[in-house]
Amino acid sequence: MGNSMMQKGGKKIKPFLIKKGLPHLTKVIAQAWDDPKLGLSDEQKAKLQEVKKETLSGVKRYSKMVNMIQNRIVSQALSGANPKDLERFVNKLASVKAEATMVHLNCIYKTRNILSKEQYEYVLSLAKKMKADKKAQK
Question: Which end of the chain is more exposed for a tag (fewer CB within 10 A), N or C?
Fold first, then answer.
């Protein structure tokens, strides 16, 4: 779930409308894959691999589109384009980001339905810890 593309200048493009609050479960689960406390069964692992594959391909596709549209808007805006002429690109950008957000939401939903309640709560606790650790490193 948590993939993003690089924009010019090395800055990551996050194609989602909701940038805070939704955990990137695929990334968290990948790091805890063989954690005995998580205790994933072979069946769960197979299902989670499918969700990961589906999610990452969707995020990659939408990230590329977001990057292209954003670059076009920025380039044209800085070249003096009338904002009215850019409106259709802004609307397209919003639409693509909405679709990317749906990929993220579907990933969370499917993952939650694969995991037991206890496993899901454990993954959420790991996500919070990873976020706190990342903040502490800044």
Answer: C
Burial of 96 (0-12, 13-18, 19+ CB in 10 A): buried
For residue 114, the Cα-to-chain-centroid distance in whole angstroms is 19
Convert the pLDDT of each residue in 95-137 to its tens digit. Answer: 999 999 999 999 999 999 999 999 999 999 999 998 888 878 8
d(CA 3, CA 69): 18
Map residue 64 onto helix, strand or coil.
Answer: helix
Give CA separation, 58 vs 70, 78, 121, 132, in Å: 18, 30, 25, 27
Grouping H, G, I as helix, E, B as strand and the rest as coil, residue 86 is helix
- Pairing, β 12-13 against β 5-6: antiparallel
